Amino acid sequence: MRARIGITTFIDDTRPRGRYEALNESYIRSVAAAGGLPLLVPVLEDKAAIEDCIASLDGLLLSGGNDVLPLRYGEEPLTGLGLSCAARDESEIGLVLAARERGLPLLGICRGHQLINVALGGSLYQDLPRQLPGALDHSPPEGQMMDELRHTIELGDADSRLARALGSGKIAVNSFHHQGVKRLAPGLAATATAQDGLVEAFEGEGGAFLMGLQFHPEALTARYPAFLAVFRALVEAAEAYRRGSVTKLI
Ligand code: MN
Fold first, then answer.
1. pLDDT tens-digit profile of 143-179?
2. For 4, which of 89, 100, 107, 137 is 20 to 30 Å away at the CA?
3. How close is the Cα of 215 to the center of ligand 1, in Å?
4. Ligand 1 mean position, distance from CA 76 (Å)
5. Residue 70 C-alpha to ligand 1 middle, in angstroms?
6. Comparing 81-85, 135-139, 212-216, 244-248, which segment has the lowest mean pLDDT?
7. DSSP string for residues in 193-238
8. Does residue 246 register a pLDDT over 80?
9. % of the chain with per-residue pLDDT over 70
């Protein structure tokens, strides 16, 4: 059986006939192309459902989306903060904490990267142009295709999981975010930074697979297949996790 990779969705309340749970299909295609079984995880409303969800997965991908509510990292909202959804924050923070308890492999992309940092005790810039002096333009105008490259990142540690997947040194990535990691949570280490110093990738310091990426590799895999290695790394970790949990049950 393929490794079961949950992918979180967002509530789309802009449709005329009711609320939908939605996800850009590039996440699904990238996980499938890497050999995983993509399973969509909706916004869950109670702790037991969150626990059951984590117990039924081999890995979890936290997808992109709106801003995490600053109250979650002890700040009041500042001008420049975008839309947020408290129900999604609650659900995803619960999923991250339950996943960490079990050592379930976790990959966070864009909002997912920021969400993991907040769930584990870090904080965010609410709006980079206003809060990070000398910040690059991380957010192209509306209409930019997601597979267009934007800026470089420097992969610091050649032994990081990210460098093992993508190679060390400098690479170009896409960029669709106006927020970013301000204070990195305890237990996380930066593995790539943009020229303005912003953390574009981090990993967990423990043994379990935990990776956050501020850019969007899922949107690049079709045009630049090298980025598929990130998803392969997640699926391989999920396969190892699955073997370990099956052994424990026996
Ligand atoms: Mn960026």
1. 999 999 999 999 988 899 999 999 999 999 999 999 9
2. 89
3. 6
4. 24
5. 20
6. 244-248
7. EETTS-EEEEEESSSS-EEEESS-GGGTTTT-GGGHHHHHHHHHHH
8. no
9. 98
pLDDT of residue 250: 57
Q: Which helix (H) or strand (E) holds 155?
A: strand 151-155
pTM: 0.97
The helix (run of H) or strand (run of E) holding residue 171 is strand 169-173
Residues near 194 by beta carbon (within 8 Å), at least 6 away in sequence: 136, 138, 151, 152, 153, 154, 200
In the chain, the amino acid numbered 136 is: L
- Residue bearing tokens 């990130």: 230
CB-count burial class (<10 Å; 0-12, 13-18, 19+) for 45: exposed
CA 196 to ligand 1 center in whole angstroms: 10
Q: How many CB atoms lie within 10 A of CB 216?
A: 25
Catalytic residue set: 110, 216, 218
pLDDT in tens, 16-50: 999 999 999 999 999 999 999 999 999 999 999 99
